[in-house]
């Protein structure tokens, strides 16, 4: 390991994160009763300008009066370039900041953006005498945010997670799509002709590089990488494929923009029984190897070594977190 220590963000289950518009208070009850790990009540892009004030008061009431069943609670504030953002923070934190676990900062572009929000949140927490420190989740969804993702990731002790906001990222980079996430037939490889002249098209994942870059920045700073929205809520298979790609790269969770996506995210982002079984067998095999003075052995015909212990411990740790949630 490097001599540089990586401090890990507080361990929270973040397999699924449900987006609920702050203006849609009729959806709150269902969200509160759902199986989601994290709820973010939105003040930003799912709320029309004329509804911002009503969304704030709905959210204050919901945080104070509704039983959210121990879920992690977050609000997505408006961007720092709007005149809504300061009121989002001041009004909601003053009235219900002690009920809030996280604040989601959209379209974060620089470390200074994080610093500015941190300063304001710190003042409100101090003035109100709140004991619990509110954490930050950042949406990496602009070219600027992606360019500065490493600096953003280490900009505050409050930082807990980075989220890939594929819709705004596409808009910001002017990627050729109007969908929210998913794949694009234009991002494909056409094979050279075979002997019989036939050619095959292999679809690629146009978001691979962006997501992988964000995962590295998150992990290098002890944060949770979370994959963002998948817009087509009538395509559970497409959603699961996207979630599986994200999980394979190291993401711990994915957004749900519809309640039907919660179970899909929880399923994909939880280690399977077979994964846990293999992880436990790796730990046993490596403990025996160590006793025998060996650093590497074979299990099921494959080499395992000390790196395998770290992989297995990640899986077993996640399984324990899930079991603790019940
Ligand atoms: C999320 O905010 C996104 O833009 O995808
Ligand atoms: Mg966005």
How would you describe what is shown here?
It is a single chain. The chain is an alpha/beta fold and 326 residues long. It contains twelve helices and twelve strands. The chain folds into two domains: 16-270, Alpha-Beta Barrel (TIM Barrel); 274-325, no CATH class. 44% of the residues lie in helices and 16% in strands. A hairpin with a 2-residue loop joins strand 11 and strand 12. Helix 3 (85-96) runs parallel beside helix 4, helix 9 packs parallel to helix 10 (260-269) and helix 11 packs across helix 12 (306-325). Residues 106, 139, 141, 165-168, 228-229 line the site of glyoxylic acid.
Average pLDDT figure: 96
CATH class of the largest domain: Alpha Beta
Counting helices, strands and paired strands, the structural category is alpha/beta
Beta fraction of the residues?
15-25%
CATH superfamily of the largest domain: Phosphoenolpyruvate-binding domains
Order of secondary-structure elements: EHEHEHEHEHHEHEEHEHEHHEEH
- Name the bound molecules: glyoxylic acid, magnesium ion
User: How many independent structural domains?
Assistant: 2
Structure, briefly:
By secondary structure, the protein is of the alpha/beta class. 44% of the residues lie in helices and 16% in strands. Magnesium ion binds next to helix 7.
Spell out the blueprint of helices and strands.
Layout: E1 16-21, H1 28-33, E2 38-42, H2 52-65, E3 72-76, H3 85-96, E4 102-105, H4 111-128, E5 135-140, H5 143-147, H6 149-153, E6 159-164, H7 166-173, E7 188-190, E8 201-203, H8 208-220, E9 224-227, H9 236-249, E10 253-256, H10 260-269, H11 273-291, E11 297-299, E12 302-304, H12 306-325
Parallel strand pairs: 1-2, 1-10, 2-3, 3-4, 4-5, 5-6, 6-9, 9-10
Antiparallel strand pairs: 7-8, 11-12
Helix pairs in contact: 2-3, 3-4, 9-10, 11-12
